[in-house]
Specification:
Blueprint (H helix, E strand, L loop, with lengths): L2 E4 L6 E5 L4 H13 L6 H22 L9 H11 L6 H15 E6 L3 H10 L3 E6 L3 H10 L8 E4 H4 L6 H11 L6 E5 L2 H11 L2 E4 L8 H9 L2
Parallel strand pairs: 1-4, 1-6, 4-5, 6-7
Antiparallel strand pairs: 2-3
């Protein structure tokens, strides 16, 4: 039985964001003010960027994974401390979700995604998700576009501490769900993460620029290959 491991953003979901726009940080400024923390959106954005880099560099230095991932809820908690206040983890997660929501310029499934999934299922395939993504908001976005119940299993990088193209990230998915590498395919739009990661892990990678649905015939052929 074939197993298809999909990337999420710009493979299944057509996504465009701008995390540095005023709309992204205005609601965060309001939440911070409600918690007694006064700072401009520009200041919060700058601190967020700097702390993301600092925490990522620290994770690289720890050498647990070749390609580590950080949890941006932790970053938002640190932003609050830098601004002279304190947020609970729940408030930090809310702040991150607000920033993400305000940053979105486009978010929709690629046309033909439902038909692609149905076509693969009809050919006996199993479907998995492996995404470099922040679980705090990505799980909501997966549900928003109607994908929450469409996979046989998923892994999001912020919950795992590593990201594609790290073979360890693939290994976590394959170990938990008992996926056979011999019958597995990675489908993604990024050669440096999705396809390079598949190659490093020892499975076939199919590049899906323009969305996976645009490559339906190739994926169907792969599902039927013995």
């Amino acid at each position: 039985m074939k197993s298809f491991v999909f990337d999420l953003y710009n493979t299944l979901i057509d996504m465009r964001t701008d995390e540095h726009c005023d709309e992204a940080w205005a609601p965060v400024v309001e939440l911070f003010l409600a918690r007694g923390i006064k700072a401009s959106g520009a200041k919060l954005c700058s601190e967020f960027d700097g702390l993301c880099k600092l925490m990522y560099d620290r994770a690289v230095g720890e050498r647990v994974y070749v390609y580590p991932e950080i949890d941006c809820v932790n970053v938002m908690e640190s932003v609050a401390r830098r601004a002279g206040g304190k947020l609970s983890r729940a408030d930090a997660e809310t702040a991150l979700k607000l920033m993400r929501k305000g940053s979105i310029k486009r978010m929709k499934l690629f046309d033909g995604t439902w038909e692609l999934f149905e076509g693969l299922r009809s050919r006996g395939a199993k479907l998995y998700l492996l995404s470099n993504a922040q679980a705090a908001f990505t799980r909501d976005e997966i549900a928003e576009v109607g994908l929450a119940d469409k996979f046989d299993g998923m892994k999001l990088s912020s919950e795992c501490g590593c990201r594609k193209p790290d073979p360890a990230f693939f290994e976590m998915l394959f170990d938990e769900y008992g996926i056979d590498k011999a019958d597995a395919v990675m489908v993604g739009d990024d050669m440096s993460t999705d396809i390079a990661g598949a190659n490093a892990f020892g499975i076939r990678g199919i590049w899906a620029g323009g969305g996976a649905a645009a490559h339906a015939n190739e994926l169907y052929a792969e599902a039927e290959r013995q």
